[in-house]
Amino acid sequence: MRSDGTRPGACALRRRRAVRWVALGLLLAAWAPSAAGQRQRQSERRVAGPGETQFNLRLLRPSGGPVIPIFEGWYRHPDGRYELSFGYFNVNTEEVLEIPLGPDNFIEPSRYDGVQPTHFLPVPEGDRRHWGAFTVTVPADFGEQDVVWTLRIDGREFSVPGRITRPPYQLHGWIFPGETTASPLVTLEPRGPQGRGPWGVRSGPLEAAVGQPLPLTIWTTRAEAFRGDRRPINVRWFKHQGPGDVTFSRPRAAVRARAWRASGAGARVTTQATFGAPGDYVLRALAYNTIREFEFQCCWTNGFVHVTVTD
Fold first, then answer.
1. Up-side HSE of residue 192: CA atoms within 13 Å toward CB?
2. 210 exposed, middle or buried (CB, 10 Å; 0-12, 13-18, 19+)?
3. Measured at the alpha carbon of residue 152, what is the angle toward residues 197 and 40, in degrees to the nearest 5?
4. Torsion of CA 258, 261, 263, 267, to 10 degrees
5. What is the pTM of this model?
6. pLDDT digit string, tens, across residues 245-263
7. How many CA atoms lie within 13 A of 117 on its CB side?
8. What share of the chain in percent tops pLDDT 90?
9. 20, containing H or E segment
């Protein structure tokens, strides 16, 4: 504790949260219907542009609204590389939007394109939006460049730049402010690598057939330094990319401490995915502590499973 009673990083955290909500309000205001004949300025379609408009809950609606791309912030790997973390806000409470990779869903520079979601779920139950759905890895010498994610919906364009030059956007990575807890560890295959934090871990490609359930397994636990945190680890499955519907036999699970503490590899969590159309898919497993911690940009881990589906 500091002499003023705050934990290390608390002030920076409050500043960062304030900047994000101002930026989000700006883009939502840009989407709101304008006066007749008024043209949107290019700057109004950029999340990170200057502005003072606050978040407006009245813009939420069952359907007909856009998806807002969001830059969460950045953190640094021990080897010097950086991760730029992105999330999204589907302002619809019921409508799921599908925006395939291409001219309506792309990242620039193009060498970073292809890791973003194409399946956008509505406002999640008990939360405001979808946090840290993917990251972009940039080199240690990335400097003052931008990574820009753009979505185009019904003739409107929404884009957000990710950059490492703004200290208020620096994240703790996978450690909670104050170092009281951390992101769960996730493994996607037996004796495979463990991942933690928004960058997470990847596996595949697996092979599946349309209409035939594909067994999926992850293992999750907490790092030794945080095994005193005996809260459950929550697991959810999502379709991240893919041309057809995906249903999960067990889309959610809560792993109690006695299970994830039982072995070094962690608790085994299973589900089955059934695909509605052939093509290439990416499924995302999300392991997290509590929804409340998302607003502190902690503590979750993404696992990305690539699957090739045939008829």
1. 18
2. middle
3. 115
4. 70
5. 0.82
6. 999 999 999 999 999 988 7
7. 28
8. 71
9. helix 10-31
